[in-house]
Design brief:
mainly beta; Immunoglobulin-like; 5-stranded antiparallel sheet
Length: 141
């Protein structure tokens, strides 16, 4: 069974489940996406990609693999930070914002794709050099 549950809010709620994957990624410099469009930073690694714009809007796309027969519910989200170019010693500027919540069964790999918005004063890109992509799971993980 592969049903989709409604997205979970990543802010102002206690963490549910446990973190099963976490990747700290360097972002690319801000670029203009088109006339009258906000500047945007991007991040990419095999099986995942996303962006954040200066208004705080963001999007994530990530493949998540479930290695069990029994079902588990996975959520994917991101967190913004400032650190070295290798994303070590990062100061995290936001909580994790979760955008997806999907049920996985029977060793399924599913594509998690969703979006959200961070509430940061001024330009949301200011000082951001790293993004943490987090996958958490509840149930048989």
């Amino acid at each position: 069974m592969n049903d989709q549950a409604p997205p979970a809010s990543g802010e102002n709620q206690p963490a549910q489940g446990r973190i099963v994957q976490q990747n700290d990624l360097r972002i690319t410099p801000a670029e203009q996406t088109g006339p009258d469009q906000p500047a945007r930073i991007t991040f990419r690694q095999q099986g995942m990609s996303g962006w954040l714009d200066e208004t705080g809007a963001w999007q994530i796309r990530r493949e998540v693999r479930h290695n069990r027969l029994r079902c588990g519910t996975y959520e994917t989200g991101i967190q913004l930070g400032r650190g070295s170019p290798a994303c070590t010693g990062v100061e995290w500027l936001t909580d994790v914002g979760y955008a997806t919540q999907l049920r996985h069964c029977n060793s399924a790999t599913r594509l998690h794709q969703g979006s959200g918005r961070f509430s940061r004063p001024g330009n949301a890109l200011e000082g951001v050099t790293c993004v943490r992509v987090v996958v958490r799971c509840e149930g048989t993980c």
